[in-house]
Amino acid sequence: MADFFSSPIDLRKKASPVISIYGDVGHSLTRMIWELIPGYDVTISNPATPEALYEEAYDSAMVFVVVGSATDENLEIANKLSSINGVVADIIAITPEPDIRKRLHILAAKFDAIYNLDILSTQDFVQIFHHKLKKGIMRLHARLQEDEYTAFLGFLSVSADAFIVFDQQKRIFYVSEHYLRLYPRSREIFVRGTPVQRVFDSISREMGVGQHDPRYQAALQFWSTLKGQFEFMLDSGTHLRMTAVELPHKQGTIVSTTNITTYKNQEFALEKQQQELERALAAEQEAGLLQKQFISMVSHEFRTPLAIIDGNAQLIQRMKCSMPEEEMTKRLKTIRAAVSRTVNMMEAVLSSNLLKTGKLDLNREDFDFANLVTELCEEQRNLARGHNIQTEISMTSPVVNMDKKFITIILTNLLSNAVKFTDSENGVVQVTVSNTSRELIVKVKDNGIGIPEDEIDNIFMKFYRATTSSGIAGSGVGLSLVKELTHLHKGRISVKSKLGEGALFTLNIPQDFPLEQGAANR
Ligand code: ADP
Fold first, then answer.
1. Whether 511 and 370 share a structural domain
2. Which of 125, 324, 380, 414 is exposed most, by the fewest CB atoms within 10 A?
3. How far is the CA of 420 from the centre of ligand 1 (A)?
4. Which pLDDT score is estimated for 349?
């Protein structure tokens, strides 16, 4: 085990092993050994007290105790040294007394060797010394590695992450407890020597990740190369991140698994928040844009009533007292009606959601549709003077439930266009209103200049004006507003026209009508 593993961190407390010599009063042994150690990475120490000796013995490659007599103290030293856990040095007693040696042998078998230097030849001692020192250094080294290994595994086991250590052959060398808890059903394969492929198969099975699961390929890639990082989510909702780190000197690979669920959840929450902010911002921008568009369209609608007011006021100014009272009353009534229409329109805009959301919403009410068409045609007659505006209304019931202000805008636009794009002398505008059980149908037909065929599709686009409209006042927003307001009623608007042959606009608005009731014909 220790041969396999050397940790990347040097945990050794001391730089080089020690030869401990205790009780060498005249330093003769110390001097002798001093002569023998050049070439070795060792130091010599002469601890002054038994306690100091016990302390350093753990890091010693050899321990010499010079024994003058077989006293209790010397026996105690041998006992104590051998009972210190992890001491790897040979404990060697040096004594000149044969009978002490005998006594030591019997009483303190804990000494690994007992030498009398007086009778042992120097050559023999040198040989024995080298042999034992080499062994001591080796054992010390191995013990240090083992210590490091134990400490390292200790670190791994207290870490919050789960670990598997693979050896060079990609076989399990170590699995942390966390792993066994993470995959309890794969417990029996989490043993030293299991090849990585079996680990992968077992974990995938335990997770219920089959070959067709999108997570499988990513996991396979990771486990087969044991490189990099990959994240996946267990069916329980737990997010795990696996990281493979190569150990130094090609000793193998550590695969750590970290539970990143909290982090992931925070990441998701942040992302969601970000998206919501972006959505809110986009909605805000869109609302602003729509607002501007509608305001520009709606303000165009003020032109018709203002034209009526202006026209009538001019007439009154011109004729002054010569205007018959009846006529004057009629003109003033028209002016007041136009003013109230303007006010109504302003209210419609202000009371709708337009300013808040940029969108118009319907305010439905019951009203007499036939009456409204009649009034608006009359209004156009006043403005147009000269056009023949005919109405034909055939409805099973004149009452509809729609947004009266918006319907007024739709009809006014269709009527004023019909008048505007038709020559006043022979101009005929025919307005037909009818219904089926499901919808209201309004047709506005004129015999005016018509629309070039290749331009028909464009006329409902905002600001689009056909080439034929040059020289005729307008802004190109009326029909786009008509289309918008018709769609708001879930209706349709269409046009048929030929250049020079007038135009026919048809408006269909869904509405349930009682077919049995008497027709309201005008
Ligand atoms: P404007 O009337 O201000 O030009 P509109 O959006 O109401 O804007 O109409 C767009 C264009 O459609 C007009 O410029 C015109 O070319 C064409 N158009 C609309 N109604 C008629 C019609 N009755 N006869 C001929 N052309 C029409």
1. yes
2. 324
3. 8
4. 65
Of 377, 302, 376, nearest to 342 by C-alpha is 302
Q: Is 414 in the pocket of ligand 1 (CB under 6 A)?
A: no
Domain holding 204: CATH number?
A: 3.30.450.20
Report the atom number in ligand 1 closest to the C-alpha of 465. Answer: 14
Q: Determine whether the shortest distance from the Cβ of 447 to ligand 1 is under 6 A.
A: no
Residues 316-344: pLDDT tens digits? 999 888 889 888 988 888 888 788 778 76
Which atom of ligand 1 approaches the CA of 300 most closely? 3
What is the domain-level CATH number for residue 319? 1.10.287.130
* Residue 344 belongs to domain spanning: 270-351
Domain check: are 88 and 236 in the same one?
A: no
427 lines ligand 1 (CB under 6 A): no
| Overall domain count for the chain | 4
Give residue 427 CA to ligand 1 midpoint distance, Å. 16
For atom 19 of ligand 1, which residue has the closest CA?
A: 417
Burial of 421 (0-12, 13-18, 19+ CB in 10 A): buried
**470 alpha-carbon distance from chain centroid:** 55
Residue 478 CA to ligand 1 center (angstroms) comes to 8
Q: Is the CB of 83 under 6 A from ligand 1?
A: no
Q: Is the CB of 449 under 6 A from ligand 1?
A: yes
Q: State the average pLDDT over residues 359-372.
A: 89
Rounded to 10 degrees, what is the CA torsion of 481, 483, 486, 492? Answer: 170
In the predicted model, what is the mean pLDDT of the chain? 84
Same domain for 294 and 198:
no
Q: Which of 113-122, 273-282, 340-349 is most confident? A: 273-282
**Does residue 1 belong to any structural domain of this protein?**
no
pLDDT digits (tens, 9 = 90+) for 33-45: 998 888 888 889 9
What CATH number does residue 415 fall under? 3.30.565.10
pLDDT at 181: 82
pTM score > 0.70 for this model? Answer: no
* Domain limit, last residue, from 259, 287, 319: 259
Classify burial at 411, counting beta carbons within 10 Å of its beta carbon; exposed 0-12, middle 13-18, buried 19 or more.
buried
Question: Tokens for 221?
Answer: 């890639």
Establish if 439 belongs to a structural domain.
yes
Q: Is the CB of 451 under 6 A from ligand 1?
A: yes
CATH code of 40's domain: 3.40.50.2300
Beta strands in 50-182 (DSSP E): 60-66, 90-94, 113-115, 162-167, 172-175
476 CA distance to ligand 1 middle (Å): 7
d(CA 503, CA 482): 16
